[in-house]
Amino acid sequence: MIMTEDKNSIILKDIKCLNLALTLDCGQAFRWEKQKDGSWSGAAYGKFLNIRQNDAGDFILKTTAADFEKVWKHYFDLNRDYENICSKLKEDSLVSSTIDAYYGIRILNQDPWEALVSFVISQQNNIKRIKGIIKKLCCTYGKEICDGWYSFPDAETLSRLSVSDFEALGTGYRGKYLKKLADDTVSGKINLYEIKNMPLEQARTALLDIYGVGIKVANCALLFGFRFTECFPVDVWMKRVLDFYPDGLPECFKGYEGIAQQYLFHWARNNLK
DNA sequence: GTCCAGGCATGCA
DNA sequence: TGCATGCATGGA
Fold first, then answer.
1. What pLDDT, in 10s, does the model give residues A18-51?
2. pLDDT digits 0-9 by tens, A120-177
């Protein structure tokens, strides 16, 4: 990766394995929107970003070098060797063909709080609705960080809402989960910073202890918000995929089950049922 | 009208 | 430990 600064933007050359549409719109993050010019706009960690890829394959990020170093380099996990990981995963024939078809999916490093709240909302829900609910949540209770773009509201802010305030966003029966999650985070009963520093099994146990968080939501939060790439969330789509692995997951997934999972998830949504 | 979606809590055996 | 059931909402 080579980073150069331009006026109001930075340019990244020589980035391997990053397809913006596949990565930003594959159901791991819910706040990215494709713009009319083909670029993508979104927000994370309280910062707005617009990103696009030019004809030469370089990425143009409308941000400062400081914010790139502080937020986006880690968010896009640019120090991880995805080429190497993908070639290992391709020892499995199904994943091999899905990586060929959808090369460039990365697992983003999202903020733990945002990931956890988002995946509590996601349960028994579809991606289009999830995005709508989260957009409304941010626009109503986030801070404006750039015209029309809002931060993801913090626990303090959300703890001031009532269950019916959450329900008014369209969260349905998940409103009571969100209310308690926000309250318990503010009180310190839930400490995501501590969980982030725990080993996997301990972190998973802590998440499963949260009202409204089961194994699927816990694994999504761990994979997308807590950097545990070995987590393998199984939802209704992945249950269909598992029929192709009657003997369990292949050895070549080891350590990167979550990355294999995201390719298979995308494949399943496009090809099964 | 029915079925479904990045499921979970609850009750019961 | 495992299984059945109810749950909000909106699009297909």
1. 999 999 999 999 999 999 999 999 999 999 999 9
2. 999 999 999 999 999 999 999 999 999 999 999 999 999 999 999 999 999 999 999 9
Closest protein residue to C6 (Cα–C1'):
A173
User: Closest by alpha carbon to A176, among A194, A188, A158?
Assistant: A158
Q: Is the pTM of this model over 0.90?
A: yes
* A222-233 pLDDT, tens digit each: 999 999 999 999
Percent of chain A with pLDDT over 70: 100
DSSP class of A37: T
Q: Return d(Cα A113, Cα A127) in angstroms, integer.
A: 19
Is the C-beta of residue A127 closer than 7 Å to nucleic acid chain B?
A: yes
b/e sequence A234-265, b meaning 16+ C-beta within 10 Å: ebebeeebeeeeeeeebebbeebbbbbbbbbb
Residue A157 Cα to chain centre, angstroms:
22
Q: Are A224 and A29 within 8 A, CB to CB?
A: yes
Q: How many residues does chain A have?
A: 273
Contact predicate A251/A89, CB 8 Å: no
How many Å apart are CA A18 and CA A198, to the nearest integer? 29
Residues close to nucleic acid strand C (C-beta < 7 A): A 124-126, 128-129, 167, 170, 172-173
Q: What angle do CA A92, A262, A115 make, to 5 degrees?
A: 150
Torsion over CA: A32, A37, A39, A42 (sign) = negative
Distance in Å, residue A234 CA to nucleotide B8 C1': 14
The reply to whether A269 Cβ lies less than 7 angstroms from strand B is yes
Q: How confident is the model at residue A263 (pLDDT cuts 50, 70, 90)?
A: very high
